[in-house]
Amino acid sequence: VQLQASGGGLVQAGGSLRLSCTASGRAFSRISMGWFRQAPGKEREFVAAISSRGGATNYADSVKGRFTISKDNIRNTMDLQMNSLKPEDTAVYYCAGRNVGDPRYDYWGQGTLVTVSS
Fold this sequence. Notes:
By secondary structure, the protein is an all-beta fold. It has no helices and eleven strands.
């Protein structure tokens, strides 16, 4: 599976951005997906995840209620709608995929930079 993330940019605090991840390769409907982020000088951290068919989602406490993850198995895309952005959300955001039943994310996109100004 090849993944490509897009949609990053510069936004003021309180604003919104929508990230997209486009997949190509093996059946997207059998891949569970997630978003991770890495801020400057920090380790990569989990942001959100969605099951292969989109029926189950999970969020980091820091983004719960502000971010929404979604998956479209027809268009082979996954989105992250980010609202009420904060400066601490500034990071490079990566989309990732894992095979159903495998806890490890094996597929990674190249990352897209989100910068939130105060």
